[in-house]
Write a structure and sequence with these properties.
There is one protein chain. The chain is of the alpha+beta class. Helix 13 packs across helix 18 and helix 15 packs across helix 17. The radius of gyration is 30 Å and the shape is globular. The protein starts with a strand and ends with a strand.
Length: about 675
């Protein structure tokens, strides 16, 4: 029996954010609607102010037990609510949202039930009605019962009709190649729902310690940057949170017309012409000095007189100094660090680029030119920016979303990226900093006494995937021999004149693989990008083949059956297509992190079935497992089993011969940060 299902629940706004998960005790399951493939409809009511005589939960469980497939729109969300409320279901699912996502072939557009219903000309009004009711201060629990039932039934009907239409499409000649991808994403959806339910254990005391460390460092840096800025800029008022004003400090220039000036810069112009244009369209920033206002004698206040010559009772702000008591006047000394703008690519609409990558590059330039003070300033600015990001996104995010039982329920999505690579929210665990410079990962610990956290990380997965997809002989040989490509990258950049560590080199190793070029980078880094294209000629040739495929068919395919559509692709003058970066990037990223990683995760999940140890997160090309102390050896053996069988699993799943070795490297420790390589 095919069973279509939809749930209605309350939500609560806390700290300005809406919490609608089932793990918040303030939230309640209000209603569950079901519809069988024989059009038998049931509504189960649980917490509604107008209804006391409700259907028995046992009746809903009987339907779930009879279901051969459970159909829903964003079924993972429905499952977490059912499970948390005591219901059981572990069978196949068909998620209409995921199916539609796959069928859109990488073209991003709204995937809500309302949006899909509109596309397929189906009837549903629930979202609008609920929004109106909630905006007026109501809740799902006190919404008019008959009206709520009506809209729930609309939803059920729309979801069932949508699933029928999607089944027809997936069995058609045009779209049948996508069926395997849809089936895989549905299996993954159930696995992600289980990960969400389990949650990751947070050590709240360690979290407090991390916050204190971050805030202490932030306070110290703010003071240091303030005085250094004061030294550079005199009394020129500077807000370092403003990219535009930060650029004044770095480049000693500001645009004359910040709304239009960058549009007047001619890209690829002659360097001398470019320099002249920058000088004409911007002005230097000068150190200023503060002089005492003569009108008010530095008091900032003056007392005006009436017509009869008598003074007013109250003083007013001095109009000359605006109540400051002093007047800021420019000196002849140019303020800031005075970096020369190398090309138009560095310019933003509000001045000069102050992006993280550009500041990082400027710091290296400063060090190379023995500009110690400038390098220190840029280093502090970078660190402050990072601290601010991690404090707000992770420390505060983890604090906000961790439940009273100490669990952070990881939210992962398969549909937020064009490639199917997982994304996260509340907080976004996919952006969790790796290293010890931001030790937020140490707050995540095992839920078991004396338990451990294991992270199984694919070694150079996307590079190995690119080697397979392109069959580049050099890349395949390096992978086979265990060649350290990051060390090699560092050596190339160092030999070109810019000493670089292996860790710093990682940012560049595979960037050309995804379409990045050496344009706008330091000469040493640009030299590596050129070297990459000369060394891996097979990858470059494969990129050209992808370009031809996109131009001729407007669609490119991966070995897993995923497809990506480029309906508006055109050929440039140089022969390359538009959206070439995406054309090169999508197949590698998709096959590696949207197909191979989930496939490994599903098999680890199967091997851990019946054990207490469990998967609690996945981040890009790694899988995080909470390990029970009695099962450590079993979990390690499980990873080894996956290592030995992964190529065969890939071959079985997609009927291809995956002739490049893959490797899951395991690290284990008392928390997510302090993990060490396993023997």
């Amino acid at each position: 029996m095919k069973l279509t299902l939809d749930v209605e629940n309350t939500g609560i706004t806390r700290d300005g954010k809406l919490h609608i998960d089932p793990y918040d005790s303030s939230n309640q399951l209000v209603m569950v609607g079901t519809k069988t493939d024989k059009n038998e409809t049931r509504i189960f009511t649980f917490h509604h102010e107008q209804v006391t005589d409700v259907d028995k939960p046992d009746d809903l469980q009987k339907l779930l037990d009879q279901a051969t497939v459970l159909i829903g729109h964003n079924i993972a969300y429905d499952l977490t609510w059912l499970w948390e409320c005591g219901f059981k279901y572990d069978g196949p699912v068909f998620d209409t949202m995921l199916a539609e996502y796959v069928l859109r072939r990488g073209i991003k557009s709204p995937l809500t039930l309302a949006a899909c219903a509109e596309q397929y000309k189906l009837q549903t009004q629930k979202q609008t009605a609920l929004k109106e009711h909630l905006d007026s201060g109501g809740t799902v629990a006190n919404m008019d019962y008959d009206r709520l039932c009506s809209y729930l039934l609309d939803d059920l009907n729309a979801t069932q009709e949508l699933s029928n239409k999607l089944y027809i499409r997936l069995n058609s000649k045009e779209d049948s190649s996508l069926m395997n991808t849809v089936l895989l994403t549905n299996k993954v959806a159930v696995c992600l729902a289980k990960i969400n339910k389990r949650g990751m254990k947070v050590d709240k005391e360690v979290l407090k310690q991390v916050r204190l460390e971050f805030e202490t460092e932030q306070k110290k840096l703010l003071e240091e940057v303030y005085w250094q800025t004061k030294d550079l800029m005199g009394d020129v008022p500077i807000n370092l949170s403003s990219p535009e004003q930060l650029s004044w400090v770095i480049y000693s220039r500001k645009p004359k017309d910040k709304n239009n000036w960058a549009d007047k810069i001619k890209f690829f112009s002659d360097p001398r012409e470019f320099k002249k244009e920058v000088e004409n369209l911007s002005e230097l920033v000068y150190v200023s000095s503060a002089k005492q206002c003569k009108t008010c004698n530095g008091r900032g206040k003056i007392r005006k007189t009436k017509k009869d010559g008598s003074p007013f009772a109250r003083e007013n702000n001095c109009s000359d100094c605006k109540g400051e008591g002093y007047i800021v006047v420019p000196t002849k000394k140019i303020a800031g660090l005075k970096f020369r703008v190398p090309n138009a690519d560095w310019i933003s609409n509000h001045g000069f680029s102050t992006s993280k990558n550009k500041i990082d590059m400027l710091e290296k330039i400063a060090l190379r030119n023995n500009m110690g003070d400038a390098a220190l300033f840029l280093k502090r600015v970078r660190r402050l920016s990072a601290l601010d990001t991690y404090l707000s996104a992770f420390v505060e995010g983890v604090e906000s979303y961790t439940k009273p039982d100490g669990k952070l329920h990881v939210q992962l999505s398969q549909i937020s990226t064009a490639t199917g690579r997982f994304s996260g929210k509340n907080p976004n665990m996919q952006n969790m900093p790796r290293g010890g410079t931001f030790p937020i990962k140490k707050v995540f610990v095992s839920r078991f006494d004396n338990g451990k956290i294991l992270e199984a990380d694919f070694a150079q997965l996307e590079f190995r995937t690119a080697a397979f997809l392109s069959q580049d002989p050099v890349a395949m040989k390096e992978v086979e021999e265990g060649f350290d490509v990051h060390n090699y990258t560092a050596q190339i950049i160092t030999d070109a004149g810019e000493p670089t560590t292996r860790q710093d080199a990682k940012a560049h190793t595979f960037a050309p693989l995804y379409g990045a070029t050496g344009y706008g980078r330091t000469a040493s880094v640009a030299a590596y990008y050129k070297h990459f294209n000369e060394k891996y000629k097979g990858i470059v040739a494969w990129h050209d083949e992808l370009a031809k495929e996109a131009l001729n068919k407007t669609i490119i395919k991966t070995p897993s059956g995923r497809e990506f559509s480029f309906p508006d692709v055109t050929r440039r003058r140089n022969g390359k297509p538009t959206k070439f970066t995406q054309i090169k990037n999508y197949p590698v990223q998709s096959f590696a992190t949207a197909d191979i990683v989930p496939l490994a995760m599903l098999h680890i999940e199967r091997l851990l079935e019946g054990k207490q140890s469990c998967i609690v997160n996945t981040v890009h090309d790694s899988i995080v497992i909470d390990v029970h102390p009695d099962e450590e050896q079993y979990v390690l053996q499980t990873i080894e089993t996956i290592n030995n069988s992964l190529n065969d699993l890939i071959s079985e799943q997609w009927s291809i011969k995956f002739n490049v070795p893959l490797l899951l490297e395991s690290k284990i420790g008392p928390n997510w940060l302090d993990t060490k390589d396993t023997p």
